[in-house]
Structure formats: structure tokens, C-alpha cells
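Entry 14. Structure prediction run on the chain below.
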Amino acid sequence: MYNTLKKNLDIIKKSKKKKVFFFGSTVKKETNSFYITPIRENKKFIYFGAIIYNDFHAEKIAKSIDGKFDFTLVDLEKKVVSKVKNELINLELSVKDALTKTKVFPYKGNDLTVQACEALVNNIFINNIRGVGGKKILLLGAGNIGFKISQKLVESGSDVYLFRRNKVLLKKMIVTINSLLPKATAARAKLTKDINNLKKYDLIIGTTNGVSLIKE
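Output returned:
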């Protein structure tokens, strides 16, 4: 993994674009202690990052990239990522403590995903006079991201039908969403067990962890 990091550093140092490195974390434990993401770029920035599973590698990588980027982004979520022991990862603390030459900006990866999804859904219905209001939306995989997306879409007037394998937790999530809605909100979050009759939905969103439930 450190060879991949060095290779990517050698590639991007030749670019004249703003250089960005990001630190991310996930509870989906992989076999390695971290992995390096592919290099990507747009008109202004060239960037890649590392998905970290412990503070040791976060600090080590931060020291190796310090001063080589215009700024770095660090996931501020605090997570227990190990199922073997109660190991809390604090990327923000580890990275900020190690970096002395590169500016650090915190972010929340899940929230960026939710905001991007909400913006996309609103854009899909931008020419509709009611926007997302009155739409029936099926959401497959009601985890952290699915829950947050559902809450935003219901508040915008969509009836959101949620599906996940753990029905006990799903029922609690639906009660929570509906309980937190403003009194004037007519739309609701609803439980569905049927994902075969898809024609009744205006939109299907997949946020499953791993294998996608959306087929051709």
C-alpha cells in the first residue's frame, strides 16, 4: 500500500493543478490496514486519498504527505472499526497532530453523499411543477446514508418506501423519521416488503452496503 502511495505522489507532483489529499474511514473492515484510492482530477484539482482503519497508519501517512499538497480533507466521524476489539479511530486528531505544513479541512463523507443524492433527485424533477412533492420513492438499504436521505426527501414531500433486511430496526427508523417531521408535512416514510412491483414508484434509490439490489 505504501508503494501505491509513493507512486501516486510521484505522478501528481508533476501536475500544475491544486493538489488535494483526503483521509476517509469506513466501518466495512477490509483485510488491509488501509488502502489508497485512484488518482482523479477535474478542471482545478488533482486528488486521491487513503481509507484508514487505525490511527497508526493515519499518522504515518499524514507525515509522509505533509507539505506535498495544497490542502487535505479529513473525515471527522469517530468510528469503532474493529470487530475484534473496541478500537475507536479518530482521524481528525491523528492527522491534525501530524500535519504541520499542509492546511487541514474536516468533512463528513456520508453527509456529502446525502447532499449529492438530494441534489440529484431534485435535479431529476426540476421541470416538474411540484418538484419531488407527491412522488413515490423506493429506497433500498436503509442504513446511515439511506436513513438521512429518506428524512430529507420526506420533508420535501415525497412518500419514501424503505426496504432493508433487518425489519425490526427498519420499523424503528420509520417511526423516528415520521416522529421528527414538522406537523404540516403530509408525506410519510413507509415500510415495504415488496420490491418486485417497481412500476408504482417514480424513483428507486439504492444505498445497500455491498451487493446492489437494482438489476436491469
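The mean pLDDT is 89.
Filed with the rest of this week's runs.
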